[in-house]
């Protein structure tokens, strides 16, 4: 099954691709307004997929949640496969390869950005942008960090996050930094949301991560 998605085309020929994965209970429209914030000059093609699961009355989910930090393996693996198919399709259709692609997301969407950006057998993206997420612990999935040396990663998390504790963001940043990835960590007093005060730094990070935007 091909995932549904919303998109914001670039103004003129696209110089890169930004894929934004929404959080639990949202849909493909939720993060699309970030396109004009993270790419104000409209030089990127921005795509926002819809998660495949729709529990009754709960919006869209990438996976089921038995415990924070440990996604349900069956639904996680299914979403991983569907997102991999979509990413591959986007690269083929747009001619913008993984080396010109930033994978980003919020909450569950940040988890899926880590999963696809670091997953064994998946192409190395230009960078990963993770708001309020965690590195997943799932049987059969381990991040391929050996081939991701110096990969740019921006991690942002709120100290008042009552859904995914800030310790998850700190742990992800520490683990990736120790493995040799180029990690920038931003922490604020936000709750479980994207702190608008972090967005100027995120926009500057996107520009640095995709040299074609310089």
Task: Explain what the structure shows.
The protein has one domain (5-213): 3-Layer(aba) Sandwich (Rossmann fold). The protein has helices at residues 34-38, 73-94, 108-118, 166-178, 199-209; strands at residues 5-8, 16-21, 44-49, 101-106, 127-131, 152-158, 182-188. The protein has a seven-stranded mixed beta sheet with strand order 1-3-2-4-5-6-7, sandwiched between helices. The mean pLDDT is 95. Helix content is 29%, strand content 19%. The radius of gyration is 16 Å and the shape is globular. The chain is an alpha/beta fold.
Mean pLDDT: 95
Based on the structure given, which CATH architecture is correct? 3-Layer(aba) Sandwich
Strand content: 15-25%
User: Helical stretch count?
Assistant: 5
Strand ordering within the main sheet: 1-3-2-4-5-6-7
Helical residue percent?
Answer: 25-40%
Q: What are the low-pLDDT stretches, counting only 5+ consecutive residues below 50?
A: none
Task: Please summarize the sheet with the most strands.
Answer: 7 strands, mixed
Assign the CATH topology. Answer: Rossmann fold
Q: Any idea how many domains?
A: 1
Q: What is the structural class?
A: alpha/beta
